[in-house]
Amino acid sequence: MMFTHINWHYAAVITIGVVAFLIIDSQDIKRIVMNNKGVAIEKQQEKIDKALVEYDEFKNTIYPLLEASMAQIVSVRYLQMPPKSSVMISYVPLVERAIKAEKLDQPEIRELLKAIKAMTLYGFSVELGKIADKSSGGKIEQTSVESLIKTGLEEDYSKKVYVHTDEIDVDFAALDSIAQELPDNPDKHRYERRLKQLEDFYNQYYVD
Questions:
Q1: C-beta of residue 73 within 8 angstroms of C-beta of residue 122
Q2: I need a surface site. Which of 109, 128, 195, 204 has the fewest CB within 10 A?
Q3: What is the longest distance spanned by two Cα atoms in the chain?
């Protein structure tokens, strides 16, 4: 049971407050208790129990959905459809916090978390390649930029391992050199901003 205790010294004032509270919140109060410690309002335990049950149901529902959404993000790699890096850099820490909060330590979840981080790198590689290609008028090919960002993603969709973390590598020096070669236009500035976001993401998750 939950109680809120109030000193007798304030009983006169509280009496008025209790009446008002009964009118406003009468459905949520089981009974009023008066003892030598003061006045106590006893909440309905049934509602507390119901809330706990609903939370358990929420957890049992949300984490399969989370796993499914992570798996879907990983699967688009095989269709050559990278996720947007701007979305992923917000999505990854949210997923990581949710997993840590509930201590979800299943191997499948761990592999998917590694994979969505690698998919974020993949998203950056395609975006930077496209920006460089456009900014340079085709002089710098998209694939040449993409080759500088090794994601470690498994090519065989049938395998249970999504990513080989020991193969992940980003050549920031070469990517920065490309930025210096681009003509001074809005696309160059967009490339530089995106490269800085990639560096921040990489340092957060891949640099000890």
A1: no
A2: 204
A3: 86
Number of Cβ within a 10 Å radius of residue 207: 7
Q: How far is CA 123 from the centre of its chain?
A: 16
Global pTM?
0.68
Q: What is the 3-state secondary structure (H, E, C) of the chain?
A: CCCCEECHHHHHHHHHHHHHHHHHHHHHEEEEEEECCEEEEEECHHHHHHHHHHHHHHHHHHHHHHHHHHHHHHHHHHHCCCCCHHHHHHHHHHHHHHHHHCCCCCHHHHHHHHHHHHHHHHHHHHHHHHHHHHHCCCCCCHHHHHCCEECCECCCCCCCCCECHHHCEECHHHHHHHHHHCCCCHHHHHHHHHHHHHHHHHHHHHCC
pLDDT digits over 148-188, tens only? Answer: 999 998 877 677 788 899 999 999 999 999 999 999 999 99
Using alpha carbons only, give the angle 56, 67, 157 rounded to the nearest 5 degrees.
160
What pLDDT does 128 receive?
97
Angle (CA) 102 107 113, round 5°: 70
